[in-house]
Specification:
Blueprint (H helix, E strand, L loop, with lengths): L2 H12 L4 H8 L6 H11 L1 H8 L2 H44 L1
Helix pairs in contact: 1-2, 1-4, 2-3, 4-5
């Protein structure tokens, strides 16, 4: 974490959750400060939760991330299985026609 990111987490935690204002106060460029604030809020959510003293929120965020990874893995497995089934059905249909 850079010094400015650290400052952002401090300002974000103390100003009531205004990411744009926190980014500006942390010294980020005024050009695109709202986008930078949004990006930093998402990127540093664990650090922000830590500074807010919300250990439960931090644990909840970790569980959400793990849940999303599990969901993506399940979806990937489903897609792979569907491709295998299509390939098998196509191969079998080709054999039925030639038989």
């Amino acid at each position: 974490m850079t010094y400015r990111q650290w400052k952002f987490t401090q300002f974000y935690s103390t100003n009531g959750g205004n990411a744009t204002k926190a980014a500006r106060e942390a010294g980020y460029s005024l050009n695109g400060v709202n986008r930078m604030g949004y990006y930093l809020k998402k990127r540093l959510r664990f650090e922000i939760a830590y500074w807010n003293g919300k250990q439960d929120e931090r644990a909840k965020l970790v569980n959400q991330m793990l849940g999303e990874e599990r969901r993506q893995a399940r979806e990937h497995r489903r897609q792979r299985q569907a491709k295998k089934e299509v390939a098998y059905a196509t191969e079998r249909a080709g054999r039925d026609i030639t038989d």
